[in-house]
Amino acid sequence: MAASTARGAQALDRLRSGPNHRLEIRSDPAKGRGIFAREPLAAGTLIEAAPVIIVPTEQCALLDRTILHDYYFHWDGDPEGEGRGAVALGLVALCNHSRRPNARVRRNPARETLDLMALATIVEGDEVTIDYNCPLWFQPQD
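Above: the chain sequence. Below: its structure as tokens.
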């Protein structure tokens, strides 16, 4: 039993994200909080693998009535309709929208993470942005 518990703890250690010294949270007067690069990030770089809490389909409607509506991601099912949601436990949840994003979010069901990937080179000081790929509830800045 103790060996099994130790193996389980080791497996969890391998899935944990370490501190992300490549990113920082800053406030933008027009957009609010956002994620900015603290160092250059090459195209194709895995910027963050954010663990998620999977939200059952029937509970997504409840999230839609809270502040978390703006921060959770579609996980599976019909992108325009029913499906489970994913609450990201990482900085990816604070990425702002852009019609010309420099990063994208990829669902990783095997690891239960949302992987933030650089689409293009992101220079130090640039905001890391994604396309929300949904009807926007705000007026975009770019």
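The first strand starts at residue 23 and ends at 28.
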